[in-house]
Specification:
The protein is α+β, with helices and mostly antiparallel strands. The chain is built from four helices and 18 strands. It has an 18-stranded mixed beta sheet that branches. The mean pLDDT is 96. The protein binds the ligand N[C@@H](CCC[C@H](N)C(=O)O)C(=O)O. Ligand LBFN2T5F binds next to helix 2 and helix 4.
Length: 284
């Protein structure tokens, strides 16, 4: 079967976006075979992406679309902040909706995406989940920080759930942070039973941070929207950051706002790169 797709990115966190409304993709179970998913995600043999995003019909009243997310390793996940902005832009560009405020359901819950006239998209990422079981993270009790032993070293970390799990470490300089070595160790740390996204945060001042994220199932990306939100709320919980924070990532800048009430709001751009078609196995 020939699959139509759009290549997009949110600050260099890149996506293959597929319309599953007009193309016959299975709604239960994976939309593509695992072999296709991994092949398409490969940067040498396929399209290359950090995540595959699939638009499907909603399963609940009052929701516009179902938003499905797959990491390049084939795992399905329930949150992707940069992807949510691209998803909003995609459904509008493709004429699937004319709404400026779009409600989508993910495997974890509902998200609201607001497209503004300046082309930016604000995503309500929901409230942070601190209870260890909700992250999920193995700890006796909820705390602001935890000591995590990895290899020969112990690290003071914060842990938070945003529909996906995040661990956040403070570093003096993101340029020299051990993202490539410690990132994979943390991703598969035994205390995170569903693996974890690992953020390395450098605080510049109370309203500005620099961040690198080693993403679960994708490796280090140029930006991670949920990672940016996780870093900000963890910094706030430690009393180090204000309600509105500018997050500098390798691919660009996001604005994150959280005042302790309602959801975390993340604002940033969403860019279309090109449209394409590629052969995949016919869905089962
Ligand atoms: N790039 C994303 C997060 C994608 C999912 C993540 N790798 C996970 O497995 O939880 C973002 O912008 O939030």
């Amino acid at each position: 079967m020939r699959l139509r797709f759009t290549k997009m990115h949110g600050l260099g966190n890149d996506f293959m976006v597929v319309d599953g409304l007009s193309q016959p993709l299975p709604e239960d179970g994976p939309p593509l075979s695992e072999a296709d998913l991994r092949r398409l995600g490969d940067r040498h043999f396929g399209v290359g992406f950090d995540q595959l995003l699939v638009v499907q019909p909603p399963r609940h009243e009052g929701v516009d679309f179902r938003y499905r997310i797959f990491n390049s390793d084939g795992s399905e996940v329930s949150q992707c902040g940069n992807g949510a902005r691209c998803f909003a832009r995609f459904v509008r560009d493709q004429g699937l909706t004319r709404k400026h405020e779009i409600r989508v359901e993910t495997a974890e819950g509902l998200m609201t995406l607001k497209v503004t006239d300046d082309g930016l998209v604000t995503v309500d990422m929901g409230a942070p989940r601190w209870a260890p079981a909700a992250i999920p993270f193995q700890a006796d009790a909820e705390a602001d920080t935890y000591i995590l032993v990895a290899g020969q070293n112990a690290y003071e970390v914060s842990a938070v759930g945003l529909g996906n799990p995040h661990v956040v470490l403070l570093v003096e300089n993101v340029n020299t942070a051990p993202v490539a070595t410690l990132g994979p160790e943390l991703e598969r740390h035994e205390r995170f039973p569903e693996r974890v996204n690992a953020g390395f945060m450098q605080i510049l001042n109370r309203r500005e941070i620099r961040l690198r994220v080693f993403e679960r199932g994708a490796g280090e990306t140029l930006a991670c929207g949920s990672g940016a939100c996780a870093a900000v709320v963890c910094g706030q919980r430690r009393g180090l950051l204000d309600a509105t924070v500018t997050v500098h990532l390798a691919g660009g800048t996001l604005q994150v706002h959280y005042d302790g009430h309602g959801g975390i709001r993340m604002t940033g751009p969403a860019s279309r790169v090109y449209d394409g078609e590629i052969d995949v196995e016919a869905p089962a």
